[in-house]
TrEMBL record:
Name under which the protein is recorded: DUF2346 domain containing protein
A molecular-function term among this protein's GO annotations: unfolded protein binding
Subcellular location: Membrane; Mitochondrion membrane
Native organism: Asbolus verrucosus (Desert ironclad beetle)
BP GO terms, sorted: mitochondrial respiratory chain complex IV assembly
Signal sequence range: none
UniProt topology in membrane: Single-pass membrane protein
Keyword Transmembrane helix applies: yes
Record's keyword terms, sorted: Membrane, Mitochondrion, Transit peptide, Transmembrane, Transmembrane helix
Length: 79
C-alpha cells in the first residue's frame, strides 16, 4: 500500500495535530479577559458599607481586648 513512509507521516500527523491544537487553544491571552469577566460576575467585590462596618467593629473589639490585657498585666505587675 503506502509503505512505512506513509505510516510514519500519518503517525506524525496523529501526534502533531492534537498537540498543536492544545498549544494554540491553551494560550492565556485568548481567554484571560473572559475568565476575569466571568469571575467578577460570579464573585463581585465586596466593598459594601455593611462589610466595612463589620471590619471596623472587629477592629474596635480587638483594640478593647488589647487594652484589657495591658491593664491586667499592669495590675499583676503592680501587685
Amino acid at each position: 500500500m503506502g509503505g512505512w513512509r506513509l505510516e510514519v507521516g500519518r503517525m506524525a500527523l496523529y501526534i502533531t495535530f492534537p498537540v498543536a491544537l492544545f498549544h494554540y487553544f491553551n494560550q492565556p491571552e485568548l481567554f484571560e479577559e473572559w475568565v476575569i469577566k466571568t469571575k467578577r460576575e460570579m464573585y463581585p467585590p465586596e466593598n459594601t458599607p455593611e462589610k466595612i462596618e463589620v471590619v471596623n467593629a472587629i477592629k474596635r473589639l480587638k483594640e478593647k481586648q488589647e487594652l484589657d490585657r495591658i491593664r491586667a498585666l499592669e495590675k499583676n505587675v503592680s501587685d
